[in-house]
Automatic annotation (TrEMBL):
Name of the protein this chain belongs to: Cell volume regulation protein A
Species per Swiss-Prot/TrEMBL record: Bauldia litoralis
Main location (coarse class): membrane
This protein's record includes keyword Cell membrane: yes
Taxonomy of the source species: Bacteria, Pseudomonadati, Pseudomonadota, Alphaproteobacteria, Hyphomicrobiales
GO CC list: plasma membrane
TM region positions: 6-24, 29-45, 57-77, 89-110, 116-140, 194-213, 225-255, 276-295, 301-325, 337-358, 370-392
Annotated compartments: Cell membrane
Keyword Magnesium (UniProt): no
C-alpha cells in the first residue's frame, strides 16, 4: 500500500513539475499556457505515453470544483470597484442573457450535427457557452498586452460571473433528462430555481466577503496563518451557499470582490499566497481533466465537433454578444473583440462531466465534443488574442514603461506603506525630476551601502529607494521610477506635439489652418474628444479633425483627459471598421433610410400610375396645384 501511495505521489508531483516547466515553452512561443497544461494531462492519460488509466468522473469533478472556486475567489479579490463600475451592466447581461442565447443557438445546430434530441443539444450548448475565468484572466493579465479599460473590464467580469447560469442550466437539464420530465413545468421551475440560486448566492457572497475581512482584521494570528484561513473561509462560503440552494460559484466570486476591496491587514501577503494557490489550482484542474479524457474516442466525432466549434466562435457567440451589448454603446470593433475573446476552458470540460455522472445516453459524446471545442478555442482564439486586438485597435499603449517595485506592508493599520523602487536608467527620477513632497524617501541603497536620503544626493540609476507613501499614490510614483514606454517617440502613437485639453478648437484651427464651423467654435479640444468618443475616454484614443489627428496621451484615474497629442499627418495604422455589429444609431439610420426608400418607391408608383391613365392627363395637362392624379 505504501509503495502504491509513493508511486501516486511521485507521478502527481512530477506532472505538476513538468506542467510548470512547460511554461517556459509557452512564453517563448506565445502558446496559451492553459492549453499546455491540458496537453500534459492528455499525454499522461490512458492514450498517452504514460498510459495512466483515470476514469473517475466524480473525483475529477470534485477536484475541478474546488480549483474553480479558488480561481474565482482570487479573480474577485483582484477585481477593483472601478472595474465593476465600468463593466457591471454589460457583463451582467452577457453572463445571463448571453449564455442563454448562446446555449439555444448551439443546441439548435447540435441536434442536426450529432443527431441528438433538441434538449440534449441545448445541454451541450449550456456546457460550452460560458467563457472560462482562468483562461481569460491569464491571457488578459499575463498576456503582455494593454487593452481598452472598458473592453478588458467587461471580459474579466463576464468570465468571472457567467459560470453560475451555465452550471444552473446544466444541472437542471441533466436532472430533468435523467428523470424523463424535460418539458413539465419547464419555464416556471427554471425561473424560480434560478432566482433562488442567484439571490442566495449574492447574499451569501456579500456576507461571506464581509466576514472574511472581519476575520483578517480582528483575529490575532501568526502572519503565515492569515492566507490559509482566508482560502478556507472562501471554500466554506462556496460549500455553505451550495448547501442552502444558492450558487456557490457566484458567492465565492462576490466574496472575493468584497474582501479584496475592503481595507484589510496583510493584503500583500494574501495576494502573493493566492497567486500561488491559483496557479496550483489551474494546473491541478487542467491536468485532471486531461487525464480523464480519452483521445482515441475523438476521431468518431471530430468533424461535427470542429463544425460546432466554428459555429460557436463565428456565429453564436458574436450574435449573442452583439445583441447583449447593443444597449450599452459599444463600437463595432469593441463588440468584435469581445466576441473573439469568448475563450472556453476548464469550466466547459468540468460541466461536461455532469452528464457522465448522470449516465445520460449521449454523455460520452457530449464530454468528448466539449473537450474538442475547448481545445479548438484555446488554439485558435487563445493564440490570436494579441493579433486580433491590434488589428481591431483594442490594444492601447501602456501608461508606464518597465518598473521594478516591491510593496512592504507596515505593522498595524496605518495609512502608509513602504514601496521599494529600483531606479530605471531612463526614468524621470534618474533624469533629475524631483520626488513629490507627499512621498518621503526613507532609505536609499546604492552599491550595497545604505544611505540617508539627505546625504545620498540625486537618485542614480540602479539605486534602491524605499519610499513612505499611501496606497493611493503608488501609481503616480510608478510613472516617476519607470522606464520609457515602448514606442514613446512614435508620432503615430502619440503625435508630434503635446497640447492641453483646455486648448480651444478655434485657436487650434488658426494655428494649423484648419476648417472651423460654428458648432465647434466655442468648445475645447477636451470637450470635442469627449463628444466624439461618447464619453468613453481611453489612453491612446484618437479622433481625426480636418487633416490632423488628436490623440489622448494621458488620462487620470477618473478617465479625465490630462494631455492631448497632435499628429500633423493622420495615422496609417487606423483600425479597420468592420462591416457588421452596427450600433443603435446606425440601425436607426438604416430603418430611416429604408422608410424613405419605401416612401419614394410608393410615390414613384403613384406617379407611374397617373401617367399611364390618359383621360385625367388630357383633362388637366398642367395641374399647378398637384391635387389630381398627377400628384408628385
Amino acid at each position: 500500500m505504501l509503495e502504491s501511495l509513493n508511486i501516486a505521489i511521485f507521478i502527481g508531483s512530477a506532472l505538476v513539475m513538468v506542467a510548470v516547466l512547460t511554461s517556459l515553452v509557452s512564453f517563448r512561443f506565445g502558446a496559451p499556457l492553459l492549453l499546455v497544461f491540458l496537453i500534459v494531462g492528455l499525454l499522461a492519460g490512458e492514450d498517452g505515453p504514460l498510459g495512466i488509466d483515470f476514469d473517475n468522473a466524480g473525483v475529477a469533478f470534485f477536484v475541478g470544483a474546488i480549483a474553480l472556486a479558488i480561481i474565482l475567489f482570487d479573480a474577485g479579490f483582484e477585481t477593483r470597484v472601478a472595474t465593476l463600475r465600468v463593466a457591471a451592466g454589460p457583463a451582467a447581461v452577457l453572463s445571463t442573457v448571453g449564455v442563454v442565447l448562446t446555449a439555444l443557438m448551439v443546441g439548435f445546430v447540435a441536434q442536426y450535427l450529432f443527431g441528438i434530441p433538441f434538449f440534449a443539444g441545448v445541454l451541450l450548448g449550456a456546457i460550452v457557452a460560458p467563457t472560462d475565468a482562468a483562461a481569460v484572466f491569464f491571457l488578459l493579465r499575463v498576456g503582455g498586452i494593454t487593452l481598452r479599460d472598458r473592453v478588458r473590464s467587461t471580459l474579466e467580469v463576464e468570465s468571472g460571473s457567467n459560470d453560475p447560469i451555465s452550471i444552473f442550466l446544466t444541472l437542471v437539464l441533466v436532472e430533468w433528462m435523467v428523470g424523463g420530465a424535460v418539458t413539465d413545468g419547464l419555464t416556471g421551475e427554471i425561473a424560480v430555481r434560478f432566482l433562488l440560486q442567484i439571490g442566495l448566492g449574492t447574499v451569501a457572497g456579500l456576507a461571506g466577503g464581509w466576514v472574511i475581512a472581519q476575520i483578517v482584521n480582528r483575529a490575532q494570528l501568526e502572519p503565515a496563518l492569515y492566507p490559509i484561513i482566508v482560502i478556507a473561509a472562501a471554500l466554506a462560503v462556496f460549500a455553505l451557499t451550495g448547501m442552502i440552494g444558492g450558487s456557490g460559484f457566484l458567492a465565492v466570486y462576490l466574496a472575493g470582490i468584497v474582501a479584496g476591496n475592503t481595507r484589510i491587514r496583510h493584503a500583500l501577503a494574501l495576494r502573493r499566497f493566492q497567486q500561488g494557490t491559483t496557479w496550483l489550482s489551474q494546473i491541478a484542474m487542467f491536468l485532471t481533466l486531461g487525464l480523464l479524457a480519452t483521445p482515441s474516442q475523438f476521431p468518431a466525432i471530430v468533424l461535427p465537433a470542429i463544425a460546432l466549434a466554428a459555429f460557436l466562435t463565428f456565429v453564436a457567440r458574436p450574435v449573442a454578444v452583439w445583441l447583449c451589448l447593443l444597449p450599452f454603446g459599444f463600437s463595432r470593433n469593441e463588440i468584435a473583440f469581445v466576441s473573439w475573446v469568448g475563450l472556453r476552458g476548464a469550466v466547459s470540460i468540468l460541466l461536461a462531466i455532469l452528464p457522465v455522472i448522470g449516465r445520460l445516453p449521449d454523455a460520452q459524446a457530449i464530454f468528448n465534443t466539449a473537450f474538442i471545442v475547448v481545445l479548438a478555442s484555446l488554439v485558435v482564439q487563445g493564440w490570436s488574442i494579441g493579433a486580433v486586438g491590434r488589428f481591431l485597435g483594442m490594444v492601447v499603449p501602456a501608461r508606464f514603461g518597465p518598473v521594478e517595485r516591491i510593496e512592504l506592508e507596515l505593522p498595524g493599520r496605518g495609512d502608509h506603506e513602504i514601496v521599494a523602487y529600483v531606479v530605471h536608467p531612463e526614468s524621470p527620477v534618474a533624469n533629475g525630476q524631483r520626488i513629490p513632497r507627499w512621498a518621503r524617501p526613507a532609505l536609499i541603497v546604492r552599491g550595497g551601502r545604505s544611505l540617508r536620503p539627505d546625504r545620498a544626493g540625486r537618485p542614480q540609476a540602479g539605486d534602491h529607494i524605499y519610499v513612505l507613501t499611501t496606497a493611493n499614490f503608488i501609481r503616480l510614483l510608478d510613472g516617476l521610477f519607470a522606464g520609457p514606454v515602448e514606442g514613446a517617440g512614435d508620432p503615430d502613437l502619440y503625435g508630434e506635439f503635446s497640447i492641453g485639453p483646455d486648448t480651444s478648437l478655434a485657436e487650434l484651427a488658426t494655428l494649423y489652418d484648419l476648417p472651423m464651423d460654428k458648432e465647434n467654435g466655442d468648445i475645447t479640444v477636451g470637450e470635442m474628444l469627449r463628444r466624439e468618443l461618447a464619453g468613453n475616454i481611453e489612453h491612446g484614443d484618437r479622433v481625426a479633425y480636418g487633416r490632423i489627428d488628436l490623440i489622448v496621451r494621458s488620462v487620470d484615474d477618473d478617465h479625465r483627459i490630462v494631455e492631448v497629442g497632435l499628429a500633423l499627418e493622420q495615422s496609417t495604422r487606423a483600425a479597420p471598421r468592420i462591416p457588421i455589429f452596427q450600433d443603435r444609431r446606425e440601425i436607426a439610420a438604416l430603418f430611416r433610410r429604408g422608410r424613405m426608400r419605401l416612401r419614394r418607391r410608393g410615390m414613384g408608383d403613384a406617379g407611374a400610375l397617373s401617367t399611364s391613365d390618359p383621360e385625367p392627363a388630357e383633362e388637366t395637362p398642367d395641374d399647378p396645384s398637384g391635387d389630381g392624379n398627377g400628384r408628385p
